[in-house]
Amino acid sequence: MDKFTVVEGVAAPMPLINIDTDMIIPKQFLKTIKRSGLGKNLFDEMRFNEDGTEIPSFILNKEAYRSSKIIVAGDNFGCGSSREHAPWALLDFGIKVVISSSFADIFYNNCFKNGILPVVVSPEERDALMGDAEKGSNARISVDLEAQEIIRPDGTTVSFEIDDFKKHCLLHGLDDIALSLEKEKSISDFEKKNKSQKPWV
Fold it and tell me: pLDDT tens digits for 129-181?
C-alpha cells in the first residue's frame, strides 16, 4: 500500500446522500478478486449509458473533474453492502480522499485498509468544501494527513480527527498483511517454540 502524505487537486462534488456501494461499483463487477481494473467501472450506472457512452452530466465525466483524487460527498457515503470492491474501485480510478459528514462504518474501515483517507467533517464544513469543489478547476484543495488539515482554496483550513492507529497505517502504507509482517520474527519464534513443545500438532 502506498504511503499517504498530502493529496492536492480539484475535488469532485457529489452532494447526493446515501451513495451506496452498489452505486460505487455495481454487483455485476464483483466477480474479480483483483484490486486492479475496477476503476473503469466506478459509478458505472451513473457514468455510462447502456451502450457504453458517457453520460455528460455525471461529475467525473466533466473535463474539470476527470482526474480528481478527492470527492466531497453527501451524508452516509458508502452505505449498503460491505463489498470491499467499493474502495478498490475508487482507488483504481485515482480517488485517494473522500470527504463527507458521515460514512457507513464498514466502508469507512475498508478505506483505511486500502489506502484511502475518509475524512469526517461537520455538515457546515462539508457544505463549504462542496462549494469549493463546485468551482471546478478554479479551486484546488489540499488534504494533509500529518497535520490533519484540509486547506481550502482561500487558504483557510478545516481540521479533522482521525484514529491514531489508522493514521499511522496510512502514513506508513501498512495494510493488514504488512502489519502482520511487522511481527514476522515473533510469529516465527512462536512457531519454532510451539513445534518443539508440540511436535504432534
Answer: 999 999 999 899 999 999 999 999 999 999 999 999 999 999 999 976 556 55
152 within domain boundaries: yes
Q: Is the pTM of this model over 0.85?
A: yes
Alpha-carbon Rg for the chain in angstroms:
19
Task: Flag whether 37 is in a domain.
Answer: yes
What whole-number distance in Å separates Cα of residue 111 and Cα of residue 113? 5
Cβ(146)–Cβ(171) below 8 Å: yes
The answer to whether residue 1 sits within a structural domain is no
Per-residue b/e over 60-95, b at no fewer than 16 CB within 10 Å?
A: beeeebeebbbbbbbbbbbbbeebbbbbbbbbbbeb
pLDDT band at 47 (very low <50, low <70, confident <90, very high): very high
State the total domains in the chain: 1
Task: Give the list of residues 6+ apart from residue 48 with CB closer than 8 angstroms, or none.
Answer: 54, 55
Convert the pLDDT of each residue in 64-121 to its tens digit.
Answer: 999 999 999 999 999 999 899 999 999 999 999 999 999 999 999 999 999 999 999 9
Provide the CATH number for the domain around residue 46: 3.20.19.10
Q: Is residue 155 part of a domain?
A: yes
Rounded distance between C-alpha atoms, residue 90 and residue 23, angstroms: 12
What's the domain range around 171? 6-197
Q: Please enumerate in sequence order all residues whose Cβ is within 8 A of that of 56, keeping only pairs 6 or more positions apart, or say none.
A: 62
